[in-house]
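ARCHIVE CARD
Drawer: 12
Card no.: 0347
Subject: one protein chain, sequence and derived structure
Cross-reference: see card 0346
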Amino acid sequence: MTIKIVTDSTADLPADLVKNLGITVVPLYVHFGTEVFRDGVDINKETFFHRLIHGGIHPKTSQPSPEDFANVYRELAKDNTTGIVSIHISSKFSGTYQSAIEGAKLSGVSCPIEVIDSRLLSMGMGLIIKAAAVASRSGKKLGEIVEDCKNSIPKIKLMGFFDTLRYVQVGGRLGKAKILMGSLLGVKPVLTVADGEYQPCGRVRNTAKGLERLVEFAKTGKNIADFSVIHSTTPETAHKLADMLSDIFPKDQTILVQLGAVLGTHGGPGTLWVAYRES
């Protein structure tokens, strides 16, 4: 019996974890004018952020097509697969979840496919995917893995601050955080993700205050099973934050990642997040 785990590139999972746990990642698309790139396949993060900051063209993003998903499901179904669990970015941020549902219908495979709206993004979703892949390796059945995933969603806590909301605003992903616009001159907005969309948590004056806020947030966690620090363009600050949190969760077990091109399009430079999963 083999249960396959599928996700999309907005999970920002590190490549070694994807490989070691046998996770399949379906890329979203990034458009610079007429140029189209598959997130994490045709454009690397260094090149992407250089073009985002210095290129003069603000990129757009799009979800995978249903046929993209159908092709992935068909390929996985050939490998003695007894079920597929496909976990995706919040449907309030992207049409990826709906494409995955349509792709499952198009695929025509005999094994069951369960598509889950994580109501999260980046490593908030990534921690659920990691747990699902570990559960699959341990021999859990399809229904058990799906139930575990759904039960884990409210146990994921995610908070971050942005250097600016300009990139999120251009991408139209602000949701309830729109109330922060017009009051953020010289400050950094702090957001969380709840009910599948951004929720405002206030603002900080500088990066140092932002780090303090994220540490305070992490300290409210109970029985933390997994932890991640996510940055867009500031790896040194991400490592510093992981050091500051080492008494809450071991740094050598903390997953440090960089935003990919799709979420980088909407987050912009200077974005920093923490995500953790309570057991």
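Annotation on reverse: The longest helix spans residues 122-137. The chain has ten helices and 13 strands.
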